[in-house]
Amino acid sequence: MDFIKQNIDKYKDRYIEELLELLRIPSVSADPKYKEACFATAEAVSHKMKDAGLDNVEIMSTPGFPVVYGEKMIDKNLPTILVYGHYDVQPADPLNLWHSPPFEPIIKDEKIFARGACDDKGQMFMHVKALEIMLENNALPCNVKMIVEGEEEVGSDNLGEFIAKYKEKLACDVVLVSDTSIIANDVPSVTVGLRGLCYMEVEVTGPNRDLHSGVYGGAVPNPINALCEMIAKMKDENDYITIDQFYDDVIELSDNERKAMNEAPFSLDDYKKDLKLADIRGEKGYTTLERTSIRPTIDVNGIWGGYIGEGAKTVLPSKAFAKISMRLVPNQSSEKIAKLFEDYFIKIAPPSVHVSVKAHHGGEPVVTPTDSVAYKAAEKAMETTFGKKPIPQRGGGSIPIVALFEAELNAKTVLMGFGLDSDDIHSPNEHYGIFNFLKGIETIPYFYKYYAEMF
Amino acid sequence: MDFIKQNIDKYKDRYIEELLELLRIPSVSADPKYKEACFATAEAVSHKMKDAGLDNVEIMSTPGFPVVYGEKMIDKNLPTILVYGHYDVQPADPLNLWHSPPFEPIIKDEKIFARGACDDKGQMFMHVKALEIMLENNALPCNVKMIVEGEEEVGSDNLGEFIAKYKEKLACDVVLVSDTSIIANDVPSVTVGLRGLCYMEVEVTGPNRDLHSGVYGGAVPNPINALCEMIAKMKDENDYITIDQFYDDVIELSDNERKAMNEAPFSLDDYKKDLKLADIRGEKGYTTLERTSIRPTIDVNGIWGGYIGEGAKTVLPSKAFAKISMRLVPNQSSEKIAKLFEDYFIKIAPPSVHVSVKAHHGGEPVVTPTDSVAYKAAEKAMETTFGKKPIPQRGGGSIPIVALFEAELNAKTVLMGFGLDSDDIHSPNEHYGIFNFLKGIETIPYFYKYYAEMF
């Protein structure tokens, strides 16, 4: 299939320019003020699908942001691959830490810098271009359907219903997703496991109004102090999570499994240097690779309360807030954990304050068997284009919808991503290597080929 | 001196209207964007002093906001009273909790609602009007100097040097300040003690940039979690402050002193009801009145870090911040406590994070002897206008400059304030009772009288 490389060499500048067009639209699904931008991005993605030669392209509405659908059905006797991606992106703040505006993409050091460059516009768009190449050359060896949603970064709240509603339309043999990373550009890997997510928001109330800390300080419960005490109580001195029954459903890996995963290339010194860390910190008894993949976590993602402006204000505030999320591992349920968190948070609240807890989106953890045809096809495709066998890897992030596909479409998902952990997705200066972008476009067609052959 | 009441009855509407003029200027000293408003307020105050008949009124510049000066020297053989007040106000946020705009004063239920209505524009302006009455009626029995500064809410950083520089000009026998409260409108009191203040700001850094909480969560120190742990470590289960040597200089009151102060009218039920508190909370072994006056405290005044916008962002942040202040009691030194705080904060920081600590303004605690001429004059003045002897009271707040006057001018300060603890100074919907405003104007001239007589 030499035409693949030839097409890429010939058209790569256009491929990149087209991606930049998508990156210029600020499709931040979490922030209401970008609502129009999200709809505009769906519009733009649908045009790209049509240009690539997909049939029956349509923007399918949901109670939230729409899903863009396109397909190429060759022969109903051939296997069908459902490609999934998302066009929404994470909020860009803190804006002051970006070296260039998040929605004015620039290319520097062979990397594309913009919010969404990697997660997931860049990776999603690789599939559109891979299809373009295969269709131009009448070389598509199987049926392909593609859906691109706009609510992944806020928990894909409407996708479950959507998939259930369009079961027939979305029927497929396997789901292919590029929203994960490889270990390094010369160390390809396929993600075979993902953590789930349980994201909570808490509010702690002391007095009914902000007070003068001199007049009332010492006698009135300070909600910030109380919230800090409660957050501190969520882990013990070994960084075990102390929420009652939190670990009950966690499946411990065998020593061999742990040994195998710790053989992946990893340098703790480089890790600490890259993050300028005085030291790492995590659950006692586990390595960094384990802490970020096979172990559940709890992190405060945001906290605020009282006076946060310039200078000094001697206020004893009425309220304090925090966003707290937990990463879950196979067999834990986000719904169950949300309940355990709420019970524990209420249980440890000092009697002098009022607390309220609400759950944002959740997602279930998943594992893909490495002996499946789908995994083998991905392995062979990467081996062909990278020149070496990819390493099966557990990812620390969450793609809540993977569990959905299995439940609703009874199809396994292959997580063949091409990003790097150092791409700063969800951080200022998110970027995506041009090498990775083009390598993805090159590799995806081989997945089609080998999957069709081995099916 | 019946003319006092007569003047008040005749002109009270004008007095109030003039105060509202001052309240319309947003002189928030903590926030740079109100810089011009602060200078404009100094200008306005100087006009009010001239209109009242004060001599040599001038706006005296400092490295920060200017001090407005005015005087009326009758006879160098008569005692001289230095009146102190401030024209700057606390920030108004959270703005959404105000029932009417903070700088568009309104009158409701016989109260003036606006930021600064009580603290301290309202109380400062009582002195201007009291002087106007006495001068109009050629009844001033002593010399009066008045200074109104613009940096009290940010720690009066430049006033120390100012007073030292103008020692001669400000020479006086006593300092009179109205920036405190009475127990109730039918229970007058004079503040004989104030707490000091030590205000710190801390920064905790984990990784060098915001990270994806899925990719890194579990292995990287989260600065918010770390900050919360550290704040939780600042008090023990009895709400004793755990900073090393924190209590070393605290002077314990005698049982009799404690008994006396606890005889002040106070209802814990009303207190809890007013603040809608599930329960009070404070240092074990002390009453609410003691916790808010004779005991030191630590309160987080503000905290922020990570994602605090709409919805959910799965970020593991790089930094977390907090503003933390301590109220100090007689014999504690704000400078020494700042050092102890910094040492302790660094000591309890987990090795995996970097911390930095900086001190905002501080202020020293003070006590006024109840057997002084100045106190007796205030007592008699209030007894005359309220019809009952005021109760000597320790205040929980801080007026850092009181210690300055003693050091630089060798003059004691009388804290004869007319506000109420329920005036919501430093909170949304700050207000000042018209009764209190007029009662202050009526009482101040009697302080002149009795002080001159007893001197």
What does it look like?
- The structure is a homodimer.
- In chain A, a hairpin with a 2-residue loop joins strand 4 and strand 5.
- The first copy, chain A, is globular, with a radius of gyration of 23 Å.
- Chain A folds into two domains: about 280 residues, Aminopeptidase (3-Layer(aba) Sandwich), CATH 3.40.630; about 120 residues, 2-Layer Sandwich (Alpha-Beta Plaits).
- Chain A has about 450 residues and is an alpha/beta fold.
- The model of chain A has no long low-confidence stretch (mean pLDDT about 95).
- In chain A, about 35% of the residues lie in helices and about 25% in strands.
- In chain A, the strands form six sheets. The first copy, chain A, has a six-stranded mixed β-sheet, sandwiched between helices. In chain A, strands 12-14-10-15 form a four-stranded antiparallel β-sheet.
- Chain A has 14 helices and 20 strands.
- In chain A, helix 1 crosses helix 14, helix 3 packs across helix 14 and helix 12 crosses helix 14.
- The relative contact order of chain A is 0.19.
- At the A-B interface, strand 10, strand 11, helix 6, helix 7 and strand 12 of A face strand 10, strand 11, helix 6, helix 7 and strand 12 of B.
- Strand 12 of chain A pairs antiparallel with strand 12 of chain B.
